[in-house]
Amino acid sequence: MTKAKLAESNFASLAEMMSAYAEEAVHAAWNDHRQRLDRSESSVDVLEQILDGQAAEDLEFQTRLWGSYFGEIIRGRFGGEWELTQYPGAVASVPTLVVRGARLYPLMKVYRRLTLGPQENLATFYKMVSGRLEGNDAQSKEGIEGVI
Q1: Which domain range does residue 22 map to?
Q2: pLDDT over threshold 80, residue 39
Q3: Residues 110, 70 contacting (CB under 8 angstroms)
Q4: Other Cβ atoms within 10 Å of 135 Cβ, number
Q5: Residue 145: inside a domain, yes or no?
Q6: What is the CATH number of the domain that holds 122?
Q7: Per-residue H/E/C for 83-144
Q8: I want to staple 80 with a disulfide (CB 3.0 to 4.6 A). Which of 64, 99, 108, 135 is the partner?
Q9: Count of structural domains, the chain
């Protein structure tokens, strides 16, 4: 599915839309960057490499594309549901991944990575989220909300 087809699509659910964008990210990674994304945890490092070379053009689409993929990696490992919720401090609702009572904003994290640079490293964030969701982190799951 191309960018235009994604934009024109009428998805039955938010989950269906996020999955379609994630699938397009797999194709774009290969077609545009010759990188393989396979929805595994190890592909977070590949995604980080791709984003490291991205210019902040067509920011809305890139955020949706790569953020959906990033969210689907988390959802694939930890489960959870997509819902539209208001991002803390913002007016607009954004796709939010609700996992075990925690609210994650993978699209906002990707947006920050694209606009603020390497200090918003996705692999580092993924490790932190994984530790908290697995209960290996001293902070509670609630500490995830608002981190990004």
Answers
A1: 3-132
A2: yes
A3: yes
A4: 10
A5: no
A6: 1.20.120.1090
A7: EEEECCCCCCEEEEEEECCEEECHHHHHHHHHHHCHHHCHHHHHHHHHHHHCCCCCCCHHHH
A8: 99
A9: 1
Instruction: Tell me the residue type at 109.
Output: K
At 87 the pLDDT is 85
- The tokens of 78 are what? 């930890």
pLDDT tens sequence across 122-139: 999 999 999 988 875 545
Q: What is the DSSP letter of 82?
A: E
Is 147 a domain residue? no
Per-residue pLDDT reduced to its tens digit, 43-97:
999 999 999 877 767 899 999 999 999 999 999 999 999 999 988 888 889 999 9
In this structure, what token pair is assigned to residue 18?
């996020």
Instruction: Please give the single-letter amino acid code of residue 125.
Output: F
Amino acid making up residue 91: V
Supply angle C-alpha 135, 128, 19, rounded to 5: 95
What is the secondary structure of 56-92 as a DSSP string? SSSHHHHHHHHHHHHHHHHHHHH--EEEEEEPTT-SS
N-to-C CA span, the chain = 29
CA distances (Å), 59 to each of 20, 80, 112, 120, in order?
18, 26, 10, 16
Q: What are the residues facing 84 on neighbouring strands?
A: 95
